[in-house]
Amino acid sequence: MRVWSSEHVFGHPWDTVIKAAMRKYPNPMNPSVVGVDVLERSVDSRGRLHSHRLLSTEWGLPSLVRAILGTSRTLTYIREHSVVDPVGKKMELCSTNITLTNWVSVSERLVYTPHPEDPGRTVLTQEAVITVKGISLGSYLESLMANTISSNAKKGWAAIEWIIENAERALS
């Protein structure tokens, strides 16, 4: 098992970042997400928006990794649940893969909150737990996947900035 974590600060208010995060896919920074389906969306008695989505991704696994896993499959699915609390100013998003779970499990948690000292900025904390099961070179694969998650996180931050910039440009 390998744990990856990160923190990023956006130079935008929480409301702006959350609107962009909810519209994150598709984006040109991370074309591996090829589909997003909303399975369920509801508002609870406390006014929090709950969303369950299914993401279709093209992992583009290197041939060595596909050989180790013993699969040629590259289309994978991820289950995502998010809760947006507009009163408490917090969005929590949890996702986990539902494809290849016999070999690899990736559980990710993202939390968006206003910056404690500057309401014009937003803090994103991310954590991913990567577990490779029953495969030789499992530690190597966990490390490789942690590096990929780190790279994809940066693409995700850039995508949110791109969405915000394009939304502002469209309003101008």
CATH superfamily: START domain
Cα shape? globular
**pLDDT average, as an integer?**
91
Under the CATH scheme, the architecture is: 2-Layer Sandwich
Query: What's the CATH class label?
Result: Alpha Beta
Could you say how many structural domains there are in total?
A: 1
Beta fraction:
35-45%
**Please, what is the oligomeric state?**
single chain
Write down the secondary-structure element order: EHEEHEEEEH
Enumerate the strands of the largest sheet in spatial order, edge to edge or round the barrel: 1-7-6-5-4-3-2
Radius of gyration: 17 Å
CA-CA gap between termini:
48 Å
The secondary-structure class comes to: alpha+beta
The residue ranges in which pLDDT falls below 50 over 5 or more consecutive positions are none
Overall strand count: 7
Domain PRELI/MSF1: 1-172
InterPro entries: PRELI/MSF1_dom, Slowmo/Ups
Protein name: PRELI domain containing 3A
Pfam family, one: PRELI
List keywords for this structure.
alpha+beta, Slowmo/Ups, single chain, globular, PRELI/MSF1_dom, phosphatidic acid transfer activity, 172 residues, PRELI domain containing 3A, 29% helix, seven-stranded antiparallel beta sheet, Alpha-D-Glucose-1,6-Bisphosphate, Chain A, domain 4
